[in-house]
Amino acid sequence: MVRPEELTAAAPVFAALGDETRLGIVTRLCTEGPLSITRLTVGGGVTRQAVTKHLHVLAQAGLAHSSQVGRERIWELEPRPLLTARECLSQISAGAGPAAAFRGAIGRRSDGGTMMTSHRIGTREEWLEARLELLAAEKALTRRSDELARMRQELPWVRIDKQYRFETDEGPASLADLFRGRSQLLVYHFMFGPDYAAGCPSCSAIADGFDRSAVHLANHDVTLGAVSRAPLAKLQAYRRRMGWSFPWASSFGSDFNYDFQSGHTPEQQQAGVGEYNFQTMDIRPEVPSGGGSSWVPELLAGVGTDWATYTRERPGVSAFALEDGVVYHTYSAYSRGLDGLWGMYQWLDRAPRGRNETVPHWWRRHDEYGGE
User: Fold this and answer.
1) Which residues on neighbouring strands pair with residue 186, listed in sequence order?
2) Rg of the chain's alpha carbons, rounded to an integer?
3) What number is the average pLDDT over the span 123-145?
4) Which DSSP letter does residue 197 get?
5) If pLDDT is split at 50, 70 and 90, which confidence band does 84 have?
6) CA–CA dist 270, 264 (Å, integer)
7) For residue range 266-283, what is the model confidence (pLDDT) as tens digits?
8) 142 vs 135, 204, 303, CA distance in Å?
């Protein structure tokens, strides 16, 4: 039997979720992960002011919290009050007629717990009708993706005359040497600073996906490798630990990372202004706080540094061409522009529950899952 104090504690949650707009916001935070107010406003038919008010109601109910990231305030879902409310409903409905239906609507979270779902059930005919509608949308997206690929290839090339020096497995190298005899070079800007003890776990998950692609690209006139600011010996040791084989160069002492927006100096960080993703942004190292930031200490312990040092590095990808001995910069992408390179998310987007990120930063390095 549910206790009165439990119902009292859950009352603000039920009240907050009684509004359709707030329920939609909670659903988006649950399925898409942390979002800015700008992202939450897009496509919702609700003004930014209204979204802000709804978020404050959710925060008062303990359902959401925010943290400042650059110039944006990012909002995250706090799932614990939802679980408390679910437990109250479970106890209320236990043994009653609707209880079986309620229990049948319980799904599984990515952390092994349970969550409520109201996903509709249909016939095979209804599924096929919806699938064909989705197929048309997928084909349109594929055609749009093909168009975007052509637009990338049509970008003007920028000649690089600056001399960059790298340390590689074969010894000192120039940017042209990183092509390894091919005419195209793809560089993943891997977050591994000189003071890191281990590579960024997010970059490591991305590298897991592209490591085995490097050999295929190498046989199609494209060298795929990574560049980081850590000394070469650190990179080699970490690559052995991860079991990777892609070429990895150290840009330690070079301006390469700074010039291609994948690193900031301590002076830039102290001033609070830097360039990333083709825009000037606030890069002051404010540590995320709130109920959804419990991942931060674990992240920093694994990387072996503090938040300020960790965030001086930035992820990205850059493309280069080599013609007649001249290197050209052809393309770069950062932030969400890397989503398509994060292989596990392409699979999750096709899974029944999608990304299902009820726990922020749930992934680990592949050797840290305890043999799962």
Assistant:
1) 224, 319
2) 24
3) 96
4) S
5) confident
6) 10
7) 999 999 999 999 999 999
8) 10, 28, 37
* CATH fold label, 157-348: Glutaredoxin (3.40.30)
Give the mean model confidence (pLDDT) for residues 311-321.
97
pLDDT (tens digit per residue) in 191-202 = 999 999 999 999
Sheet containing strand 72-77, edge to edge, reads 35-36, 72-77, 64-69
Q: Report the distance separating Cα 334 and Cα 314, nearest Å.
A: 8
Mean pLDDT value across residues 58-83: 82
* Domain range list for the chain: 4-116, 123-154, 157-348
Contact between residue 35 and residue 52 where contact means Cβ atoms under 8 Å apart: no
Mean residue pLDDT across the chain? 87
pLDDT of 4 higher than 70: no
Residue 140 in this model has a pLDDT that exceeds 60: yes
CA distance 346 to 144: 17
The CATH fold assigned to 4-116 is Arc Repressor Mutant, subunit A (1.10.10)
Q: Sort residue 361 into left (φ over 0), alpha (ψ -120 to 50) or beta.
A: left
Contact at 8 Å (CB) between 201 and 339?
Answer: no
Torsion angles phi and psi, residue 279, rounded to 5: -150, 155
Pick the range with the lowest mean pLDDT from 8-22, 198-212, 245-259. 8-22
Helix (H, G, I), strand (E, B) or coil at 354: coil
What DSSP assignment string belongs to 73-119? Answer: EEEEE--HHHHHHHHHHHHHHTTSTTHHHHHHTEEE-TTS-EEE---
